[in-house]
Amino acid sequence: MASIETAAEHERILREIESTDTNCIGPTLRSVYDGQEHGLFMEKLDVRIRNHDREIEKMCNHHFQGFVDSITELLKVRGEAQKLKSQVTETNRRLQDDGKELINSMEELKQCRVQQRNIATTIDKLTHCLPVLEMYSRLQEQMRAKRYYPALRTLEQLEQTCLPRAGQYRFCSIMAENIPKLRTQIRDTAMTQLRDFLESIRKHSDKIGETAIKQAQLQRSLDSSISMQPRALIGRRGRKLVAAAMTGMDSDGQGGSPVSEQDSGILDVEDEDEDDEVPGAQDLVDFSPVYRCLHIYTVLGLRDVFENYYRKQRRKQARLVLQPHSNMHETLEGYRRYFNQIVGFFVVEDHVLHTTQGLVNRAYVEELWELALSKIVAALRTHSSYCDDPNLVLDLKNLIVLFADTLQGYGFPVSQLFDMLLEMRDQYGEILLKKWNITFRQVLDQDNYSPIPVSTEQEYRHYTSQFPLQDPELEKLPFPKKLPFSEFVPKVYCQLKEFIYACLKYSEDLHLSSTEVDDMIRKSTNLLLTRTLSHCLQYAIKKKNVGLAELVQVIINTTHLEQSCHFLEEFISNITNVPPDTVNATKLYGTSTFKDARHAAEAEIYTSLNAKIDQFLQLADYDWLAAVQGGGTLTASDYLIDLIAFLKSTFSVFTNLPLLELFTQWDWSTYLADYGKPTCKYLRVNPHTALALLEKMRETSRKNNVFAQFRKMDRDRQKLIDTVIKQLRNLIAQHHT
């Protein structure tokens, strides 16, 4: 079976050798040598060759006679051919001799035509090549001068117009090969300059922001004085933006300022203006790297790549700028540097927005600002909470207002910042309360709780300028004289006014109405009165070793402070321009504060007095019967005599209380007429208590002097007491029915 297949394969190979061109017979023969039956194939090949030889021999025998006949005819023709050759040779010799001159003329004409054609071709090629060389030379100059945008335009014209016209020359091929490299070089160089610019504005955003804030501050001062000196005024920023828009691009299409090769992005601006105007951001920053790179990438068809890269890098820088330092809250300079960097960042973005077409759009800037605003508010809330210095909080508030006004001037919404300032107002108020708590305690600790002696008119005016004292009787007294209150009163009153001024300072520039400012000040003042000052007064009353004379002076002091509350109302109304009788206006709680303090002092007097009496009574076991002396006379106990002496000296101190003028000056007509009114002079005198005291006085008077009814003055006094008692009973009946 294998031999049959081998024979068939050999037969196929032989047919292929017979039918295949000899140039392609190699693969066929290789298949023979690759096989294992080489000898058998050679035998078949020999057999096939012998067969072909026999066929050739038969063919030759068949055509031999015709071949012989043909040879015979050729021999006959050879003689004739020799004759013809001789004739042709002779003819050719004569023709060559006759055409030599014509050939020479034709050769000369041919050379002239070739030269003419070469000259025309050369002129044509030079016409197309010279612009290429000139343009390439211009390209090299532009590259050396770093004028990349016009260089890119030259490359585009060279590639699309000049090189196709020039043809296939080696120098053109070299130029064509260099064009992508030059484009890449321009693109990379422009990107390098952009990176340098971004890094530079990141480092100098502090300076840019500081300049913008100064400009806003200058504009604010101009706005405040414009009513006094009206004149046509165009801000530097407006002028510069108009100038930038009018300038456009240079003659080569290059955008940017005249100093466009200062690719660092920051210019060294000197104060060369005569009016010393604050330079704007466009004066400090050379934006030409941005414009140049934008134009280059636009020409290269990579504008989207450039926009995405620019926005991505600026977002990264925004995150860095918005990250405050951990110790920012320690000094105002830390906040100032933080705000300057943020303002610098957004001033640059605003300028890019208005001077480029689509590099950044309004939506992108607003998105960045929303992100920044949330982070700014969060950072300020965190860091301001660490502050316990009211002056620093006030300076921070002014700085935030200036920061907000600056960015608002560039079209950024800043309402959240002002809302946060209103939140900080409560924190500022708490810090003020803590500070005034210390101040009030120092005033109370340093007070001598004695009426103020004044020996000259100048001293008297000094104290009355600090506190609104209105006492015509006191003014009539000659010098030296004493003011009824101690140093505590004018000092506290002045501190109350200082607190109001401090609250007013915070409300400035917050775009609040006069009513809102007035309400804020009154609420803060009420907190100061009801919480801080009230606690301090309670502290002064309740502390150890407070004498009765000091408590009495506290009552006198609080009485005068209570009387001065309406002056504080007027003071607040004057500085806020809001009438005190305005509907829904907050009223001061000073009257109740001082009344409560006075009530606490009175209660402390009662407690102290009772405790002192108890101490006297507990010193020894009293013999309530009078002691008998040697002569048989009765004498009072020494302990009771000391107690009565103590009470006399104590009650002499009470004579200074206006609580007591009702009895000492017998001012019952005023009490009865003003009872129940908020401005009543004896508002804290309870009619039941007064009635009990009068009845006690009447009984005591009757017991001590049985002959009083025989003296007219005593009878009149008794009648007067009876009359007042009757009026008091009627008053009690009227107000309790």
Automatic annotation (TrEMBL):
Keyword Zinc-finger: no
Domain Exocyst complex subunit EXOC6/Sec15 C-terminal: residue ranges: 416-658
Gene3D superfamilies referenced in this protein's UniProt entry, alphabetically: Dsl1p vesicle tethering complex, Tip20p subunit, domain D, Exocyst complex subunit Sec15 C-terminal domain, N-terminal subdomain
Keywords associated with the record: Exocytosis, Transport
A single Gene Ontology CC term: exocyst
Superkingdom classification of source: Eukaryota
A Pfam family annotated for this UniProt entry: Sec15_C
Domain Exocyst complex component EXOC6/Sec15 N-terminal: 44-213
Function of the protein: Component of the exocyst complex involved in the docking of exocytic vesicles with fusion sites on the plasma membrane.
The protein, known as: Exocyst complex component
